[in-house]
Amino acid sequence: FLRIYPHYKAISVVVLTPYNEQKSLFESMIASHPNEIIRRLQVFTVDAFQGKEVDIVFYSTVRTGTAYGVG
Asked: How far apart, in whole angstroms, are the C-alpha atoms of residue 56 and residue 52?
C-alpha cells in the first residue's frame, strides 16, 4: 500500500487473531523483522480489539488437519 501511496504515512494496520498464543507468535515475529514498516504492525486478540478502529485488518484464521483432532 505504501509503495502505491507513499505520501500516506498515517495508516493504521493490525493483525487480529482469536488466540493468545498466536498473538504472542506474531508479536515476536514482527518485533524481529528487519523492515521498520512491518515492525509498526500491532497485534490484538479479537476480545482486546473490540471498540477500536483501524484502516486495515489482517485476520488470521487457523485450521489443523484431522490428525490433530481439530478442524
From this structure: 12
Tens of pLDDT along 8-36? 667 788 999 999 999 999 999 999 999 88
Q: How far is CA 23 from CA 38, 40, 45, 54, 68, in A?
A: 15, 15, 7, 18, 21
Q: Nine-digit cell at 41?
A: 504492525
Predicted TM-score of the model (pTM): 0.70
CA–CA distance, 1 with 53 (Å, rounded to integer) = 18
Residue 1 grid cell: 500500500
Query: What DSSP character marks residue 67?
Result: G
Q: For the residues of 1-16, what is the DSSP string, one character each?
A: -TTT-TT-----EEEE
